Amino acid sequence: MKRILVLACALAASTAAFGQLYKWVDKDGKVTYSDQPPPAQQSKQLNLSTGQPSAPARSAVEMDKEIEKGRAEAREKAKVAAEKERKAEVDEQNCKAARAYLKTVESGVRVSTVDDKGDQVILDDEQIAAERAKAQKAVAEACKSS
Questions:
Q1: CA 54 from centroid of its chain's CA atoms
Q2: What is the pLDDT of residues 92-130, one digit of tens each?
Q3: 52 lies in a domain?
Q4: Which of 35, 80, 106, 117 has the CA that lies 20 to 30 A from 66?
Q5: DSSP classification of residue 116
Q6: Taking CA 119 as the corner, what is the angle to CA 110 and CA 95, rounded to the nearest 5 degrees?
Q7: What residues have CB less than 8 Å from 115, skipping those under 6 apart?
């Protein structure tokens, strides 16, 4: 007899857990919870979780695929970050080289170039001024982010 009573109580409690729960504030400002909606009063219906997962559990294969997808995304992010870092280093080297050339052109020393025949040609003042302008433009372009 006790077993039947315990079983009946357990079944009653378990069905109550799956029922609806209502919340409302009475005229005295007291918050009330009940499985029955209040008579002629505004209430909010609450959905309670029973502790059971709503979706079926994922299989180990699906979880492995998700993990591998995350690893692939992490590798791709690392690759992009490494490429950005390499580009930043190249940009910094180009900026340093452009500044060094500008400093050479502005120093007042004679600047020379090699012509089509392979002979060394010393630049005159007009050519040096043109090279200075080109060097300033190169510094402006190469050192934008610096």
A1: 29
A2: 999 999 999 899 888 888 888 888 998 998 888 898 889
A3: no
A4: 80
A5: T
A6: 50
A7: 121
Same structural domain, 122 and 83: yes
Q: Percent helix, strand, coil in the chain (nearest 5)? A: 55, 10, 30
Judge if 32 and 84 occupy the same domain: no
Is residue 55 situated within a structural domain?
no
Rounded to an integer, what distance in angstroms lies between the CA atom of residue 125 and that of residue 112? 12
User: Computed from CA positions of residues 14, 15, 18, 19, in that sequence, does the dihedral angle turn out positive or negative?
Assistant: negative
Total of domains in the chain: 2
Does 130 lie in the same domain as 74? yes
Which of the 8 DSSP states describes residue 57? P
126: containing domain: 60-142
Q: Given phi > 0 = left and psi -120 to 50 = alpha, else beta, which region is 29? A: left
CA distance 35 to 22: 6
Residue 51 domain flag: no
Check if the beta carbon of residue 23 is closer than 8 Å to that of residue 32. Answer: yes
What is the pLDDT, as a whole number, of residue 1? 59
Is pLDDT of 71 > 70? yes
- ∠ CA 102-128-117 to the nearest 5 degrees? 105
